[in-house]
Amino acid sequence: MSGRSKQDLTKRDKRSVDMSPTAEELALADMWKRPPEDECEESNYPSALPGADEAKIRLNIRMVRHQVTWALVEFSIVLLTMYRGRWREVAEIDSCHDDDFHVHQNGRSIDARVGDPVTLGVIRTLEDVQEAYNLALTKVEDEWSTLKDRWHHG
User: How far is residue 100's CA from residue 119's CA, in Å, rounded to a whole number?
Assistant: First the structure.
């Protein structure tokens, strides 16, 4: 040993700072990393709803995909209804914050979002974005009538 006693080493070990990552740091490190914008391509398109009158209700879907892998990076599904001669936003499910996907509800009387978004799930990997999209689309297809009723009375 280099002239230090075992007792001196123990004191030094007790004074050392724990540099291991915290649980929060580990959680952040585990989150997926979005590809740079210049590697992504955005597309928008309208879509019909099963069993709905296309002249009165429809979807507008926005997808952002990685240009190399074509993996889904971000999405937005907007439920629209024709009201007094123009399309109005009823609800939107999106993943625009990268770490979750959630639904925003709009109100007819104020023609804007009402309340806080409701989180539907967590996104931890790039694969989770595609799964979240599939779940969100199914939710809108199954619940569009309920969402429209909330909009009408909200």
Answer: 7
